[in-house]
Amino acid sequence: MNSSTFSFKEKTQLLLKYLEVNPYHYKSIIDCTPDIVFVIDIEGRIIKPNRAFEKLSGYSSEELTQMTLQNLMGSKQADKFLHHFQLALKGSLENFDCSIIHSNQNRVALNFTHFPVVVGSEILGVYGVGKDITGIMHSRKGLDEKEFLYQLLTSNSLGMITSTDSDGNFIYFSPAFLRILGYTPDELLGTTSFGLIHIEDFEKARKNLTHLLNKKESGFDTYRVRKKNGGYIWVECICKPLIDSNTNHVKEIISVIRDISERKKAEEDIRNSEARYRNIIEHTPDAIIVVKDSIIVYTNDTSLELLGATTKDELQNKSVFDFLHNEYIASAQRRIHQLKNGQTVDFKDYKIYRLDGNILEVEVKPVITVFQNEPAIHLIIRDISKKIQTQQLLVQSEKLTVAGQLAAGIAHEIRNPLTAIKGFLQLMEAKLTDYKTYFDIITSEMERIEIILSELLTLAKPQDMKFVKGDIVQILENVKTLIDTQALMNNIEIITLYETNIFSIFCDENQLKQVFINFLKNSIEAMPKGGKISVELQSLGFDKLKLLFIDEGRGIPDHILNRIYEPFFTTKETGTGLGLMISKQIIENHNGTLHIRSDKKGTIVEVILPIF
Ligand code: ADP
Ligand code: MG
């Protein structure tokens, strides 16, 4: 209102005085009219209600003067009234409909006219005249009742309710809306609901409005809404357009809004913890499978590899029992049962099928977990085939060590009596001159035995790799001596073909011997009917030599050829399957290469080594 020299109270008193002094202004017109006539002061207090007012409202004049417009109309209608009141103060004197609440709680519709009470240059209040239009409104009675109900519901509701016009301008907001967001009505009146919506949700809200203006209801949408303190809350909102029956256009949009920040936060927390869980699981070296009622719902990359799948889809929604070897199903079910009874269950060995049908040995530990808010079982699966192989390797190398030690022991034991025999033989040779040829043979055989014994001794001695300059021909000859007896027993002849006699190499002699013995033994074992093994030595360029072991054995079929270097791969009943694996390693340690070619006529082992 205009700047004034009077306080509100003073203005009211002045108004009263004025009416006393000028009673005809009021009294005569008022008392006989069926319309309500009253004056309200600029704070909305009812002053001087007429009789019609008493009749239409059901309150006495005294009661009415104790009331404000808000009491009498309800806040929404009072707002409307005050809005027009403001307009009237500015000189706009349009009629408008507004309803009051009768003391019997029925609404009475009135058409109001009002104009300011101006004394001098002071605006002191407003004259109001309200025409009873309940009759006219009769056809709209249902609507009014609804409006009343709506009023009653919204202002007392703990929920947030707003109404906006078709541009989004606020018309009404429930107390809860103001309270939760922290605004006062003044701060929101004259603004649009879009002003409160988070920029990222703006587009969604715009689309929703278009949808509503097409007279369709919205579904539940979620938005971030700005609070007065600058923060945002998440709300869920359902909107309904109200259609003006005259224009058939949307005149108002009612939104029922719910604060879902708590729910959003809980969802966020779950998402975060799920993301953390996934992150850990994706990076663990164990295979992890999550199952719900034995159906696979999640797999990490390691488990794909383990089961031989290329994509997660190949495993998703299959039963874990499809992968489990029949023998183990009962045990697995028992363990799941124990787990569900709250017991913890440790790793246990199982056999499972990979997708390619191969069987894999694994150990499995199930743990109770929650997956996507539902109880599930988290399976930790580890491939133990390597572990089993290592165990076997240990056992095997233990055996070999024992055998080696035994051999060394025996060699030692034989050497002593051999020295004695040799001594007596020399004594006898001196006397029995007729048998010289026999003695020569015996002596040479004895020397062979001695060589073999010393070879055995050096081989058995566990040694670190010791690289020295060595003579390849000498090494081959030593190996030949060692293996010849076995060859002869199998009706096999070992032929050597050396291109030259001078090939120095930098090597660990014992290890190379071990390699060559291995090749020759493999050849012998492949030739049960006897035959010929040739060992050929050639130069290759200036700096390498090529060594070939060529046998006439049964050969190696193609499907076996690419597995012969695998540890423990053997086709023999008493084989170790370690020979070629170790040989390849030793040759590579000597900067050499190993190639094996084979067909039905026999096998060629080719070794290339650098010359010293
Ligand atoms: P093992 O001799 O203990 O079986 P190896 O690693 O020495 O182990 O050999 C692996 C396999 O390769 C043998 O079981 C055999 O089937 C095949 N193999 C190796 N050398 C030959 C060969 N000269 N002739 C035929 N088969 C061979
Ligand atoms: Mg072998």
UniProtKB/TrEMBL annotation:
Name it.
histidine kinase
Q: What class of enzyme is it?
A: transferase
Any idea of its EC number? 2.7.13.3
Instruction: Outline the extent of the Histidine kinase domain.
Output: 409-612
List, for all copies, the residue spans of the domain called PAS.
Answer: 22-92, 145-216, 273-343
PROSITE patterns from the entry? HIS_KIN, PAC, PAS
Keywords assigned by UniProt, alphabetized: ATP-binding, Kinase, Nucleotide-binding, Phosphoprotein, Sporulation, Transferase, Two-component regulatory system
Which Pfam family, any one of them, does this sequence belong to? Answer: PAS
Write out the GO MF terms. Answer: ATP binding; phosphorelay sensor kinase activity
- On whether Ribosomal protein is a keyword of this UniProt record, the answer is no
Single GO biological process annotation from the record: regulation of DNA-templated transcription
The PAC domain is annotated at 218-272
Please give the organism.
Answer: Cytobacillus oceanisediminis
Q: State the InterPro entries in the record.
A: HATPase_C_sf, HATPase_dom, His_kinase_dom, HisK_dim/P_dom, HisK_dim/P_sf, PAC, PAS, PAS-assoc_C
Gene3D superfamilies listed in its UniProt record: 1.10.287.130, Histidine kinase-like ATPase, C-terminal domain, PAS domain
Determine the domain of life of the protein's source.
Answer: Bacteria
The protein's annotated catalytic reaction(s) are: ATP + protein L-histidine = ADP + protein N-phospho-L-histidine
Say yes or no: keyword Nucleotide-binding present: yes
